[in-house]
Design brief:
The chain is built from ten helices and seven strands. By secondary structure, the chain is of the alpha+beta class. It is rod-shaped.
Length: 352
């Protein structure tokens, strides 16, 4: 399993952005526009720092704590909005109690780090893909309203994340995000919208891969079935080929002694399980005359031709299956048969 990280990020929030932030965080009906919210789980959200109106709360804290002589500028950073979360795998393996404790410990860190009196809200969202908490605080320190009072430079941001890891992340076995080495370009953290878009893209790719995998599995199953069918067909081809080859060999052996009626009859009787030899034996009757022998011979020759046609048909079938490039054995059998198809010699003057 890869590393699981503790995550804390902050961003500046000015003017009208404050109200929009509350619409999202408090899930105000008709005002938030987040399509990724599972409304059936919204009841599981929790507010750990009760508040009223963000803008009113922010202004009240500024009125109470700001000691500057100048009026606060309209474009001043009035609220620092942050997010606390962890790698999705952490929440997948954590119990409900561990998740609750994680966010309560994070709240404790924010109170100590940014000042309890500055904290406006700490809202835990359980109704999105990965549990997280939004928090906001007014950047007041020593009577000054200033982002730089808390984060004068990037090193200060990194130090704050170090402290969060030490006080919270390490308690739950989480890792700190890898620090940028000196000379490396600054990392650009993705916005929530970018993360969601990236998540949807990755999920879409995963879904596509899953569909491809399922299609491959189905194709593999189909291929295996076809292979089994091919194997059965090839075995059938082989059996038919051997049968035809054996029958042709028996016919050829019978024809080799056709000039000797006694031997001819005996050989046909020996191969009587061959339908063609059996038919030739019946056609020769008593094998007493040359005519009896010619009748039997004619049955054998015609039967051999039929077997050749059958062999050629089998060869075509095998070729259509494209499993055998050559049918040398079949051609050899054909040549062997052709050698036995010479015109029959008259039997009248041969020894009976």
């Amino acid at each position: 399993m890869g590393k699981q990280y503790a995550i804390l990020r902050v961003q500046k929030c000015k003017g009208a952005e404050i109200g929009a932030m509350q619409y999202h965080n408090d899930r105000e009906p008709g005002k938030h526009t987040n399509p990724d919210i599972d409304q059936s789980r919204t009841r599981m959200n929790r507010e750990l720092c009760p508040h009223a109106d963000y803008e009113g709360e922010v202004q009240a804290r500024i009125d109470a704590g700001y000691k500057g002589t100048r009026k606060v500028r309209k474009d001043a950073v009035r609220l620092v909005e942050g997010i606390v979360t962890a790698s999705p795998e952490f929440f997948e393996g954590a119990s409900a109690e561990e998740v609750r404790d994680f966010f309560e410990d994070a709240l404790g860190f924010c109170r100590e780090e940014f000042g309890e009196s500055n904290l406006v809200h700490f809202t835990v969202h359980m109704d999105e893909e990965t549990p997280h908490a939004h928090f906001g605080f007014v950047p007041l320190r020593d009577g000054k309203l200033s982002w730089k009072g808390f984060f004068p430079d990037k090193a200060a941001l990194g130090a704050m994340q170090d402290r969060f890891y030490g006080r919270v992340g390490a308690l739950y076995g989480l890792s700190r995000g890898e620090k940028r080495l000196e000379g490396q370009p600054a990392r650009r953290h993705k916005s929530v919208a970018e993360y969601k878009a990236e998540s949807r893209r990755v999920q879409s790719e995963l879904d596509e891969k899953a569909e491809q995998l399922e299609a491959a599995r189905e194709e593999l199953a189909s291929t295996r079935a076809q292979l089994a069918e091919c194997r059965s067909q090839v075995e059938g081809f082989a059996a038919r080929f051997e049968r035809i080859k054996a029958e042709l060999a028996q016919i050829a052996e019978c024809l080799s002694v056709r000039g000797f009626l006694g031997s001819f009859k005996a050989k046909l009787a020996e191969f009587a399980e061959n339908p063609i030899c059996k038919a030739a034996l019946a056609a020769g009757r008593d094998f007493m005359t040359a005519r009896d022998g010619r009748r039997a011979e004619k049955v054998l020759v015609n039967g051999a031709r039929e077997k050749v046609v059958e062999m050629e048909g089998l060869s075509r079938e095998m070729g259509e299956w494209s499993l055998l490039d050559e049918v040398g054995d079949m051609r050899g059998a054909r040549r062997e048969l052709d050698s036995h198809e010479a015109p029959a010699r008259p039997l009248d003057n041969q020894v009976l």
